[in-house]
Amino acid sequence: MFRPYSLSALVLVLGLFAPAIPAIAAPLGEDGLHKTPWFAMTFRDVAEDIEAARAEGKRLAMVFEQRGCIYCAAMHEKLLADPEVADYIKENFVVVQYNMFGDEEVTDLDGDVLTEKTAARKWGYVFTPTIVFLPETPPGEGTVAEAAVATMPGAFGKWTFLNMFRWVRDKGYESDEHFQKYHARIINELRAEGRLDAE
């Protein structure tokens, strides 16, 4: 008896023979870092950036990158180019890019004036990309590393990446639900909805 293939099986078969779709090329800046156009350009005074983000009803996220970082490129070309990821971050966060080996001036929350590279050393950030999430208001004392409510070092898949932004926005760091438990719960919900396409 003839049984027709399901649409999902047909899509899978056709996908095996389709040419690979190239990643969206994120343009490179003069500093060699990939540029996502909706990242904020600021004077990198962290307290001012926190306040500016709050005035927009958003949170501040700082992303450390370096020239030639393949994981940074993947973050720009795959994760930040994904409309679901980009739309959520743009709606809820102000993102400021830092060059781990850069010389642009940075003002820490404790008032220290540094360069990007000395700030990265002071705060202990050694991986790229590293995304640092700051509190809703400047703490009034301490450093960025001490004030950060969460830090995401390294490259992750779509749902880990996006769920960290959601967890911070939902103030998960103030609750008893650790990020890993939050992430597992969201993944289970996505599976139940049939929306899980990664991780």
From TrEMBL:
> Which key words tag this protein in UniProt?
Signal
Q: Which residues form the Thioredoxin-like fold domain?
A: 53-137
Q: Does the keyword Plastid apply?
A: no
Signal peptide from the UniProt entry: 1-25
Name under which the protein is recorded: Thioredoxin family protein
